[in-house]
Please model this.
Amino acid sequence: MLIRKPSEIPAIPGSEITPESVYRNRRQFLAAAGATAAALTAERLWRMARPAEGVSAATKLDTVKSPLSLTGVQPTLYRDVTSYNNYYEFGIDKGDPARNAGKLKTYPWTVAVEGLVKQPKSFDIEQLLKLRPQEERIYRFRCVEGWSMVIPWVGYSLAEFIKQCDPLPNAKYVQFLSLADRKQMPGMGEVSINWPYSEGLRMDEAMHPLTLLTFGLYREALPNQDGAPVRLIVPWKYGFKSAKAIVKVRFVDKQPHTTWNELASNEYGFYSNVNPNVDHPRWSQKTERVIGAPIFKQRQPTLMFNGYGDQVAGLYNGMDLKKYY
Amino acid sequence: MITLKVLVHVACLLPLAWLLWQLFGPSSGAGLGADPTHTVTYFTGRGTLRILILSLAITPVRRLLPRLAWVIRFRRMLGLYAFVYGSLHLLTYVGLYAGFSWAAITDDLSKRPYIWAGVTSWASLLPLALTSTTWSIRKLGKRWQMLHRLVYLAAIAGVVHYWWIVKTGVRSPLPITLALAVLLLARPVLSEVQARRKGRVVAGAAAL
Model:
């Protein structure tokens, strides 16, 4: 009776649960890590305090500061960012991507650029990594399911990449296609989705400096379950708008088809800007559950455009956001 | 029998003890994963459906295997545990989703069919839990059986509730749906088989 799949409830033996004192100290360490010389030591200690996750420490990325990064916020634990993921190519359970993405080969990797461009091109991942200095951007991340995180991403503005693609003036939208390889992605058969995963942005959204071509998090290369080796982050939109493991970027003149919109257009609009005033048909979007917060303190109000209204509201001037949800 | 009853109690209570320990024990929720609200919601919701399905399996089992007729003694217990889990599930919603706000609850009820399905399921179990005493069974007689057919509504509404909350394309409610379908179909099928068997006996007797 009540047989739990291990995936539903993490059966962590008492011996493996991080003692609260360690957990609390870790927070202090993180705070201290700001810019001081203690940073290195702190990080080493933090690693020791972090429970083993099967995620090997990835390649370090050198980063520069960005004025677009949030300050004074507490990032979600690395452990949660890398073990609580929606990535259906690897399974529908939140723990599936961390369990199943290990096999994914992220090197070599090329991103093909096609459609309305002067000349179709392709970029190797090395080229992309070096195209611009990598910035640390601490962003809020809000999932359409009603939960949120704060994640220190690493990358540079997608606009910098788009400039290298030479799009034609009639390119109005950009479509992003993710890898779809059944050999490497065991979850693809689990759901009735028309692969590959497709997402898209309007050109002005894609060119907005907040829109991040993302290569890492926590100053390391992206773990596979978080969309390695290159993904998108659009912090004022629900998480599913930010395609992972991108293999193709296509410039088009019409709004491209997008995966979740295709699956349930009444629930997932093309724009999908975070908006507390537009409910998902099956749940309210007024509040969100903060990942990693204690259960009785998880709820917090959701902000318009996920708190990025000052920067992005102008993109939608005169648009009825209830109609274009 | 008593040992077995104790075992069933333990099996039903152990997950709850685990949950309470996680919620209020020294780990202060860390064992409930990254999204503890979600964990508790699914834990209590799936628990309710699983126990409810088990309680529905009792009648077909004893009709199929008369030797196991004694399992009937576990039916009330399982039904009540399903109600306990269902009530905790409801409490999770009222507290951790609606924030004990009546406005939020009525807003949900006015917009969301899956909330209705869940409430229907719980509300069908409520009178069953209230009339689960031996005294009620005696007092209500035939009407008790009629009333307790509500358990079918509770199970069906519960499964519908589950399908409505998962994302399009997700098939995780499938196993429990199949189990319920088998158990619901088992009833008419067993009746038919038994009626035929009886018919054969009667016919045989007439031929003599």
